[in-house]
Amino acid sequence: MDALFERTRAEGRAALVGYLPAGFPDVETSVAALTAMIEGGCDLVEIGLPYSDPVMDGPTIQEAAETALANGFRTSQAFDVVRDVAAAGAPVVVMTYWNPVERYGVDRFAADLAEAGGAGLITPDLIPDEAEEWEEASRAHGLDRTYLVAPSSTDRRLSMTADAASGFIYATAVMGVTGARQETSSLAPELVARLREVTDKPVGVGLGVSNGAQAHEIAQYADAVIVGSAFVRRLLDAPDPASGVESVRELAQELREGVVR
């Protein structure tokens, strides 16, 4: 991911990062939608690994994950999705809770992700203090480690997390579960400013972005604008998969315009 952020910083803009769960509403459509996000302007995509106990996910992403699991989605299929989406030309990371990685086998997961063309892993419930096994596996297979920080994180925690992270640091702009919101969090600029005091690594801001205006607002102070629930909602509300994929593409275009203007 280093090359991506070097490029966007040279262009004087933030990167646009989009999220969708693998296997939602089915594997084929999830690949098509993720590819459409890239074609619409996303610089990086996060592929969510559906999980049965998504404690940090809001109702929109939970509904999507439940649909994927009900349709029989398995962890091993995520690597097929990564492989197909990576062919579109943008970096691809997997966002997952730690339990599925541990059950699959940490080194095996890292090896399969790297083989599929993945760039790294975002682990919302894994903190650097407890990530020794992942640290070793990710380094062995050339994968980035993206950890989350929140407005409640202490300065010491921010510094430690920044030191351990690679690729980018994920700054959650609000307290609570994920979901699109009418307004971005007023805590986000302060959190990013605190991170700037301890690191020069890229900082992405997520949780709540749903339109181009919000994307533009966050792009003024963050290195990446992260959008998840708004993309998922486009698929959930669509009358059919093809319409959903096109709606995802249109949202990506709107968000990209907001990021670059």
Could you characterize the architecture of this molecule?
The alpha subunit is responsible for the aldol cleavage of indoleglycerol phosphate to indole and glyceraldehyde 3-phosphate. The chain has 261 residues and is an alpha/beta fold. The protein has a single domain (2-260), classed as TIM Barrel, CATH 3.20.20. It is built from 12 helices and 9 strands. It has helices at 2-10, 27-40, 59-70, 75-86, 98-104, 106-115, 132-140, 155-164, 187-196, 212-219, 229-237, 241-260; strands at residues 15-21, 44-48, 92-95, 120-122, 144-146, 148-149, 169-172, 203-206, 224-227. It has a 9-stranded parallel β-sheet. Helix 11 (229-237) packs antiparallel against helix 12 (241-260). The longest helix has 20 residues, at 241-260. It starts with a helix and ends with a helix. Mean pLDDT is 92; it is low at 175-184.
Assembly state here?
A: single chain
The radius of gyration is 17 Å
Reported for the largest beta sheet, the result is: 9 strands, parallel
CATH topology: TIM Barrel
Enzyme class: lyase
Family: Belongs to the TrpA family.
Function: The alpha subunit is responsible for the aldol cleavage of indoleglycerol phosphate to indole and glyceraldehyde 3-phosphate.
Organism: Aeromicrobium erythreum
Task: Summarize the topology.
Layout: H1 2-10, E1 15-21, H2 27-40, E2 44-48, H3 59-70, H4 75-86, E3 92-95, H5 98-104, H6 106-115, E4 120-122, H7 132-140, E5 144-146, E6 148-149, H8 155-164, E7 169-172, H9 187-196, E8 203-206, H10 212-219, E9 224-227, H11 229-237, H12 241-260
Parallel strand pairs: 1-2, 1-9, 2-3, 3-4, 4-5, 6-7, 7-8, 8-9
